[in-house]
Write a structure and sequence with these properties.
Elements: H1 2-34, H2 56-74, H3 82-85, H4 89-109, H5 111-132
Helix pairs in contact: 2-4, 2-5, 4-5
């Protein structure tokens, strides 16, 4: 009987050792992944700083341009609200305005002409909006988030 108890204990210890070994291996892999690898050679360029953050106007232009084009390409509004699109209230109104201007152009001159109109109008609307937006945290334009 005593022998069975020892074998169970030995089996339990072996299982614990296996768990410890697996945990150590996992920790080693995580640490190796965080190490960044080898240092760059003399022939490799030094790391460059990250890009300058986009301005509010640049972000607006990209968002309005993207969503207006998505709506025009689909041929109809997909039913997303401004929050699902990741837009502010003001940006959503700009998307609606650009799409309303581009729909007749699409019908008359085709999709390429409508998309070209978006490329022209999105920057104009965003620049005009942010030129007049107040410097308050909420931007004073109504809706949330503003901007």
């Amino acid at each position: 009987m005593r022998r069975q108890g020892l074998s169970r204990a030995a089996g339990h210890d072996g299982h614990m050792n296996l768990q410890r070994a697996a945990a150590a291996l996992l920790a080693g892999l995580v640490l190796a992944g965080c190490g960044g690898g080898a240092a760059p050679s003399r022939n490799e360029p030094a790391a460059t700083p990250s890009k300058t953050p986009k301005t509010r106007v640049q972000s607006c232009i990209e968002s309005v341009d993207y969503w207006a084009k998505e709506i025009l390409k689909a041929g109809r509004d997909q039913g997303f609200d401004y929050q699902e699109m990741g837009l502010s209230d003001a940006q959503y109104r700009m998307v609606r305005e650009v799409v309303d201007q581009a729909k007749p152009v699409r019908q008359r001159d085709g999709l390429a002409a409508a998309l070209a109109l978006v490329d022209k109008e999105a920057p104009r609307l965003c620049k005009a909006h942010y030129a007049t937006a107040t410097a308050t945290p909420t931007g004073g334009t109504g809706g949330w988030p503003n901007g």
